[in-house]
Amino acid sequence: MYRRLSMIMFPIMSVLFIGAMYWGYQEHQEKNTVLLKAENGYQRAFGDLTYYVHKLNDELGNTLAVNSTSKDFQRKGLVNVWRITSEAQHAISQLPLSYLPFEDAENFLSRVSNFAYKTSVRDLSMQPLSTDEFKTLKSLYNSSHEISSHLSQLQNNIMNSSLRWMDVEVALAANESDTSNPVVSSLRSVNDQSTEYGEVEWGPAVNSMYTDDKIQMLSGKPISAEEAAKIAAKFIDTDASNIDIKENGKESDFPTYSASIKNDTDGDKKLSITAKGGKLVMFAHYRDVSEAQLTIEQAQERAKSFIEKRGYDKMEAVSYDEYYNTGTFTYVYKMEDDTLIYPDKITVKVALDDGEVVGFHAADFASHHRERQIYKPTITLNEAITALNTEFAIKNQRMAIIDGDLGEEVLCYEFTGNINNELYRIYINAETGLEETIEKMSRNDQAVSS
Predict the structure, then answer these.
(1) Are the beta carbons of 148 and 234 closer than 8 angstroms?
(2) Model-wide pTM > 0.90
(3) Domain boundaries, the chain
(4) pLDDT average, residue stretch 373-391
(5) Closest alpha carbon to 363 in 251, 303, 283, 270
(6) Which residue did the predictor score with more confidence, 41 or 240?
């Protein structure tokens, strides 16, 4: 009996064993294929990074080599520097550097990119590169040369020693801070070198991009948790005893209070209030939204009623987006003379099933809103109109303050109109008469705008 059973089971077990071996082999082959593909991707990304940093150094050298009066070539060189650094940043994003302190090198490239962009977009014939900016370019040229040399040396070591990026990823994932992996060590060296370039004078336009204006501009006395609860309760029309409060970032420069409703049976409501000044910057009601029933006009009425009830009574809708049965309106502050202040912005999200406001964001308004003295435009309305395309059919015009490319507020003539069967907003700088920016408007934007 046992013999007969063994005669039956042996072939079956043999087939199963062979099948398991084959399956294991297939899994191994597929794993190797995935690893090889990832390794090739990392090798390509690092090769791209090395190439672009080398090209960055060349382009900075070319820009410095021309005569200081060659404005057109300087602009061309700065545009190329901006483009190349963007490519280098993209290459970095494809490397397994999540656990590695490489942010200083990334930050250095980011600042190079922004410096190049902000100097190239201005009119160099009217505002040429300053002595300090030429010094900055020379510092960047020397710095990029050193980084390029180190990256090239690392690339040669990787190729000559058959080092693998997959080993780097494994070492980093294991949080081996003291790893002796030569790639990790070299990358840390490049990153550490980048911190030595912190003395570069980037200028106020670039430095302002790395300063949180919310921290700078928020003012007022610190509030207690009890006061924050009252602010939250008033905003959502409930009693303060129903509010749970949690303080965030007490030791940071920008502490806030998070508020929520106790035992909320109607979804999950969250609010964020600044601990300094007691300004509400965010409200969200997380719930499922059913099929849309409201029109844009009906939703806009709900949004406007919501913000006016809460003291935002001088706001004008400028855009509208619809997503997953919700409509989001963007409002900006409107002065007595009808000038729109785009930095003073809030957004309101309305559920299109019943018209409830399920989202409110006012961080920009809280950061920027203040009394402003509007200076008289240097150019007239007619002069601004001459800067427009002759085929642009103007439907409306007014004054507006927007954020300029250099981070400063800019007074503009705002023109709304049609060209090429599309609707646009075009902003003409009220001081220079040049186009500051152009926005394509959707039909929904047109529907909610005055």
Answers:
(1) no
(2) no
(3) 14-210, 225-368, 381-448
(4) 90
(5) 283
(6) 240
Tokens coding 200: 């570069």
Place of tokens 């129903």: 242
List, for residues 12-37, the tens digit of each pLDDT value.
Answer: 666 565 666 656 655 555 555 656 67
Nearest 5°: phi and psi at 391? Answer: -90, 0
Please name the fold of domain 381-448. Nuclear Transport Factor 2; Chain: A, (3.10.450)
Residues in the chain: 450
> What is the distance between the alpha carbons of residues 39 and 170, in angstroms, rounded to a whole number?
12
103-120 vs 71-93: helix axis angle to the nearest 10? 150
First-to-last CA distance in the chain? 94
Name every residue whose Cβ is closer than 8 Å to that of residue 378 and which is 6 or more positions away in sequence.
430, 431, 432, 433
Q: What is the pLDDT of residue 450?
A: 63
Most confident of 107-116, 259-268, 279-288, 380-389: 380-389
- Count helices and strands (H / E) in the chain: 13, 12
Answer whether 61's CB lies under 8 Å from 141's CB. Answer: yes
Q: Which residue has the tokens 């390794």?
A: 39
What 3-state DSSP class applies to 256?
Answer: strand
* Rg over CA atoms, the chain: 30
Dmax of the chain from CA atoms?
108
Rounded CA separation 81/118 (Å): 11
The average confidence (pLDDT) of the chain is: 79
Element (H, E) at 111: helix 103-120
Q: What is each CA distance from 68 to 58, 72, 76, 125, 190, in whole angstroms?
A: 18, 10, 13, 11, 32
pLDDT band at 110 (very low <50, low <70, confident <90, very high): confident
